[in-house]
Amino acid sequence: MSFPLLTATAVVPAVGAVATAAVPAARRAAAKWLALGFSLATLVLAAVQLVRFDPDAAGPFQLTESHAWIKDFGVRYELGVDGIAVVLIALTALLIPFVMLAGWHDADPLEGSSPNRRWRPTQGFFALILMVEAMVVISFEATDVFLFYLFFEAMLIPMYFLIGGFGDRAGERSEEETAAQRSYAAVKFLLYNLAGGLIMMAAVIGLYAVTADQLGTGTFSLQEIVQARVDGRLELPPVTERALFLGFFFAFAVKAPLWPLHTWLPNAMGEATAPVAVLITAVVDKVGTFAMLRFCLQLFPGASKWATPVIVALALVSIVYGALLAVGQRDIKRLVAYASISHFGFIVLGIFAMTTQGQGGATLYMVNHGISTAALMLVAGFLISRRGSRLIADYGGVQKVAPVLAGTFLVGGLATLSLPGLAPFVSEFLVLVGTFSRYPAAGIIATVGIVLAALYVLVLYQRTMTGPVTEGVRGMPDLRVRELVVVAPLIALLLFLGVYPKPLTEIIDPAVGHTMSQVEKSDPKPDVPVNEAEAAK
Amino acid sequence: MNPVNYLYLAALLFTIGATGVLIRRNAIVVFMCVELMLNACNLAFVTFSRLHGNLDGQIIAFFTMVVAAAEVVIGLAIIVTIFRSRHSASVDDANLLKL
Amino acid sequence: MENLIGLLVAAPLLGAAVLLCGGRRLDRSGPWVGTLLAAVSFGLGVVLFADMLGRSGEDRTLTTTVFSWVPVGGFRADVGFQLDQLSMTFVLLITGVGTLIHLYSVGYMEHDERRRRFFGYLNLFLAAMLLLVVADNYLLLYVGWEGVGLASYLLIGFWQHKPSAATAAKKAFLVNRVGDMGLSVAIMLMFTTFGTFAFGPVLDGAEAAGEGKLTAIGLMLLLAACGKSAQVPLQSWLGDAMEGPTPVSALIHAATMVTAGVYLITRSGAVFDAAPTAQAAVVTVGAVTLLFGAIVGCAKDDIKKALAGSTMSQIGYMILAAGLGPVGYVFAIMHLVTHGFFKAGLFLGAGSVMHGMNDEVDMRRYGGLRKYMPVTFVTFGLGYLAIIGFPGLSGFFSKDKIIEAAFAKGGTEGWILGGAALLGAGITAFYMTRVMIMTFFGEPRWQPTASDSGSAAGSGAPHPHESPKTMTVPMVILAFGSVFAGGLFSINDTFLKWLEPVTGHAHGNPPVSALTVTAATMVVLVLGVALAWARYGRRPVPVTAPRGSGLTRAARRDLFQDDFNHVVLVRGGEHLTRSLVYVDHTLVDGVVNGTAASVGGLSGRMRRLQNGYARSYAVSMFGGAALLIAATLLMRAV
Fold it and tell me: GO cellular-component terms in the record (chain C) (predicted)?
C-alpha cells in the first residue's frame, strides 16, 4: 500500500490542532510557532499533491484511498482528488500560514487581564484555525457523500468559536456591545449553516434510500453512484432527483453564499477579526461552490440543468446586489463582505453557465478570489488594528503617513476590481465569456458588476487613503516586517497568476471537461468558426 | 360475592385519591392521597388475579407496595426538608423550578 | 527582430517595477532611471523602424507569440505581438513624445518629494500603452487598455492629498470602466462569433459574419473608444483629469492615451467597413464631440481645461475621420500624430507658464507673459499656429484632409459632416487665439495667489521666469514637430503610402473641389481669429469672469453634462444603494430574523404552561390519561 498522502494532508493539521491546544498557558509564543510549523507542513504535503497529480491521467480521481467504514450503511472512507480539488487544497494550505501570521497578536490576552493561569485563548485560536484547515481539506478530498457531509458540518464548530470568541479590540464601542454583536454574528452564522446542513442531511439520507432501493445495496460513494447512473442501473425519477438536488444545493448556496441566503456573511465577516474573516470567505465558503461542482452537477445532472435558469438569475442578482450594497457600506469589513457576495455570484454563474470557460473560470475564480480577498482583507485588518475603528469615515489621508500600507491596499483593491494583469481578471473574464456564449443577456448584466466593482473599490480607497490626513490617522505606523511578509507573497502571487495562469488552467481543464461530460453539455459553437475563416483566406 | 364489586371499590378509592391530589394543598395530605391511589390499584390488581386465576396480579401488588414504601421514605424526607427551609407544607409554595 | 518587440514593452515595465518597489534609495536617481528606460524604449522603436523600412509594403508586419496565456477549452488567449506600420507609428509617437515628457518632468517635478513614484507611474503608463498598440489580439489589447487607465488614475490622483485630485482620478477610472465594459462585451461577441479574438482571424473573417453581429461589435468598440478618448457621452472625465501634473496632461490626456480610441477603431476597420450602422454612429459621435469640445474650450478660463476641451474636439476630428472608412483612416492617424506633437507642446507650454506663475491656472490672471518667457512664447505660438491649421504647419495638412474627406462622404450627410468639421475649425481658431491673447499678450493681470499645492512659495505676486533647460528643450523639439511633421508627411503622400498596406485607402470625391474646401477653411479660420482678437485683443480682459451669455455659462459647466451625471447617476445611485442597504437589513434579513422571533414568541407563550404548581401538572396528567382512555375506547367502539 502506498503512502496515504491525502489522509496525511488532513491529519497533519488535525494533529497540529491537538498539539497546539495542549501547550501550557504560559508558553504562548511556542504555541504560535508550533501551529505555524504544522500549517507549513500541510503546505508541503499539499505541494506534493500538486506535483504528484497528473492532469492527463485517465479517470476522474487520483491518489485515491478507499476503506470500509460503517459497513451496515455502506459508508466508506473514500478519498480522491481531481484537478479542481487539488488546486483548492493547495489554496487552503497556502492561505492558512498567512492567516496565522496576520493574526499573530489577535488572540493575545489583553494587558494585565489574566483571570486565571489556565486561560489559553492564544492556543485555542491557533488550534481552531488548524482544526478548520483539517476539515476543509478533508471535505475537498472526500468522494463519499456521507464523509463529505460529516466534515462539511463539523467545520461549523471551530468556525463558531473563532467568530464568537475572538474579535477586534472594542475601539470606540463598549466591550459589552462588541461582545453582544459578535455573539449575534456567530449564532447567525451557525444557524444559517445548520439549517442548510440539516436539509442537506435529509437529501443525503434520501440518496441512500434511493440507491438502496435501486441498486440493492445502499451507497454513498460518488464514483459508484455516477457509474451506476452512466450504466443505466440507477435512474432517478425527475421529481426525486430535483428534490435531492435542491436539498444539496440549498446547503451549498447558504455556504457560498448566494442571494438571498447571504445575510450571515456581512455580520460574520464584520465582527470576526480580519484573519478569521479571510478564513470564512477565502477558505470555508469555497467548500460550498466546490461542492456544487462536485456533487450537485455530477450526482444530479438532469436536475442541475432543470434548475439552471433560476440559479443563473440568483447569481446575477448576487453580483449586482452585492456590489450595490458594497457601495452603500460604511464599514470597511462589511464592504469587503458584500464584495465577496458579488464575487461568489460570479463563481456560481460560471459553474451553471455549463461551458468549459465558465466552469474553468469559476474554479480559477475560487483560487484567485481567495488570494485577492486575503490580500485586501488582511491589509484592511492591519489598518483597523492601528486605528481601532472599522468605519470608513474615521480614516482619510493614510496614503500620506503610511504609503506602503496604502499601496498594498490599492493593489488588493485593484485585484478585487479585476484589473487586467492581476489574477482575478483572467478568471472573471473566463466566467463572463463562458456565460455570454450560452446566455448573452446574463453575460452583459454580469459585466455591469465590473463597473460597480470599480466604484466600491475606488470609493473605499479614496475615502480612507487619500485627501488630507485626518486626526486619528496622524502618526500611524507603516507596515511592519511581519505584515509585509504576509502581504508581499500574496501580491506576488496575484501578479504571477495574472500573467501566467497556465499551470493552474492545465490542471483544472481536464477535471472541468469531465464534469461537463457528466452533465452532457458541450460548448456552443461560434457562428463563423476559425477554420472556415482561414479557409476563406 | 361478585368480585367485580371490588373493582368498583378500587375505582371509587382511586377517584377519591385523585380528587384529593388535585384539590388539597397540604403536601402530607396530597401524599396520603397518592398512597390511596396506589392502594386502589393494588386492590384492582389482586381482584384481577382472582378473576383470572393466576398470581401475576398479586406479584405486581407486592412490587407496588415495595415501591410505595420506598416512595414514602424519600417523599416524606423531601417534604420535611422543604418544611424546614420554607416553613410551609403547601405544594403551591414549592414552585421555584418554574422558568 | 521579433524579440525586440517584447523588450520594447519590458524596458519601461522594468523601470516601473524598480521605481515603485525600489524604496527611498532611488529618490535621487529615480527620475533619470525612468527617463533612461523611456529612451531605451524609444531607441528600440527606432531600430525596429529602421528594420521595417528595410522591407517593403506587405512584408513589414512582424508577429511573434511569446507564450500561451489562458488556454481553456476552445478559448485560446496568447501573449503575442504584432508590429505593423500602424503600430509602428504609435510606438514612435508614444516613446518619442514619452521620452521628451520624461525629460521635461525631471525639471517640472524637481521639488516634489514623491517624484520617484511619479516616474514609476509614467513608466508604467508607457509599458501599458505600448502593450496596447503592439498586442496581436483584443484580449491583450484590453490588458493594455486597462493598464493605461490605471496609470492615468494614479497620475491624475498623484497629488492625493487634494480631495479634488482624488475625486477626479476616481471619476476618470469609473467613466473609463464604462467604456471598458463595451470592449469586454465586444471581445465576448467576437468569441461567440468567430471563436477567437486575435486580430488576424477576426478581421479577415469579418465579412463572413452577419451584419447584425458586426454592428453590435462595432457599437461596443465605439463605446470603448468613447470612454478612453473622452467622446460624447463619456467625455466628462477629461476636464477634471487636468488635476494631474501638467506633464501627465501632455502625455496621457493629449498626445497618447486619449487617442487609443482612434487606434481601436482604425485597427478594427474591417469590422466597421462591414457594418454601416456602426460607422454612422462613429461619425455622429465624432462630429458631435468636435463641436462639443470646441464650445467648452471657448468658455474655460483655466488654461489646462481650455486645452482639454480642445483635445476632446481634435480627437472628435480623428474619430470622425476613422468613421468615414478607408477614405479617412490614414488621415485620422496623420492628424493623431501631428496633434500629438502640437498638443503635447501646448500643454508643456502651459506647464511652463504655470511653473513660472506659482501654479496659477486662471488665464484671466496671466497676460503679457511673452516678454518674460520668450522660449515658451515662441514654442507655444508655433503650436498654436499648428492647431488652428495655419497654412504650411502640421495641423493644416492633417485637418484639411479630414474636412475634405467629410465632404466626400456625399449627400446630405456629407454636407452636415463637412459643415460641422468646418465650423469646428473656425471655433478652434477662436478659442486658441483667446488662449494665446489672454496668456501672452495684453497687460499683466497677475494676482497674489494662495497656492493650494503647498510646495510653491505660496502667496505673493508671481515673478514669471523662463523654465530650466530640461523643460524648454522638449518644448523646442515638439515645436519642430508641430511645424514640419505635417509637411513631411504630405510630400509625395509619404504617410499615405506608409499606412496604406494596413488600413487601405480610397480616394473620396468631394462635391466641391479640394481647393474650395481649403479656401473655405481659410475663411473660417480668419473669421475665428478676428473674432477672438476683437473680443480679447482690443479690450482689456477683466480679471473676474463676467457673467456671460447663456451659452458661455453652459459651456463653463461642460454643457451640463456633469450636472446631469450628478443628478441622475450619483444621486440616483446613492438613493438606490441606500435603499438597498435598508432592504437588505429589514427585508432579507428581516424574514430570517422574523422567523426566529416568531418561534421565540410561540415558545414564550408555551412557557406559561409551566407555572410551577404541582397540582396543575397533575390536572393535565389526569386530563391526558382520561383523553387517552377515551380515545382507546372510542377506537374500540369503531
Answer: endomembrane system; membrane
